[in-house]
Amino acid sequence: MKKTVLLIGLGRYGRHVAEKLHELHHEIMAVDKSEARVNMVLPYVTNALVADSTDEEFLRSLGIRNFDLCIVAIGDDFQSSLETTSLLKDMGAKYVVARASRGIHEKFLLRNGADETVYPEKQLASWTAIRYGYDHLLDYFELSDRYAVYELPMPAEWCNHTIGELKIRQNYHVNVLGIKQQGALNVEITPQTRLVAEDTILVIGRHEDMHKYFQI
């Protein structure tokens, strides 16, 4: 469903967020103090303004309650990020996601009104360490402290067997979400689905089970 999004802060991170939101066909109001940054995102947003997001009068003029989502992507000025987050919630913002650059920033942002925080550097560092720390892990997406989605080469002992024959859920405590066949993802998985060596497999499971059964 299309959302109306207020995006504040148009550095590298904010600009990438704008591009992806545009790709997903959302309506975006973008704000930054830098005219150069605003000009760079014009192709991807519905409207863009050069302004200081800590200016209470300016924020009120935007009609904050009308946005489905507010993203505070300011990364180089924590005081401005904190003030903006607090003002947005005071003005009735439905949901505020704020970017953190340090662990302590997460705590302060949450205490001052952020519904959720993102910590791009930390999240990407974790993904990089796990993804490239194992030769046989092709991709990885963490869902929580205990669960993640993993893309793996087809385990040799699974080849030429069906999912039902292997009893994967019972024996390995993971669920098969899909199979990639020559780059195409097949999610219509049944107990009769036969596994072949050339494919890769997407599974969801607990970290401890993935480590126990797949050395991840």
TrEMBL record:
<feature type="domain" description="RCK C-terminal">
    <location>
        <begin position="135"/>
        <end position="216"/>
    </location>
</feature>
<dbReference type="InterPro" id="IPR036721">
    <property type="entry name" value="RCK_C_sf"/>
</dbReference>
<feature type="domain" description="RCK N-terminal">
    <location>
        <begin position="2"/>
        <end position="119"/>
    </location>
</feature>
<dbReference type="Pfam" id="PF02254">
    <property type="entry name" value="TrkA_N"/>
</dbReference>
<dbReference type="InterPro" id="IPR036291">
    <property type="entry name" value="NAD(P)-bd_dom_sf"/>
</dbReference>
<dbReference type="GO" id="GO:0006813">
    <property type="term" value="P:potassium ion transport"/>
</dbReference>
<dbReference type="InterPro" id="IPR003148">
    <property type="entry name" value="RCK_N"/>
</dbReference>
<protein>
    <submittedName>
        <fullName>Trk system potassium uptake protein TrkA</fullName>
    </submittedName>
</protein>
<dbReference type="GO" id="GO:0008324">
    <property type="term" value="F:monoatomic cation transmembrane transporter activity"/>
</dbReference>
<dbReference type="InterPro" id="IPR050721">
    <property type="entry name" value="Trk_Ktr_HKT_K-transport"/>
</dbReference>
<dbReference type="InterPro" id="IPR006037">
    <property type="entry name" value="RCK_C"/>
</dbReference>
<dbReference type="Pfam" id="PF02080">
    <property type="entry name" value="TrkA_C"/>
</dbReference>
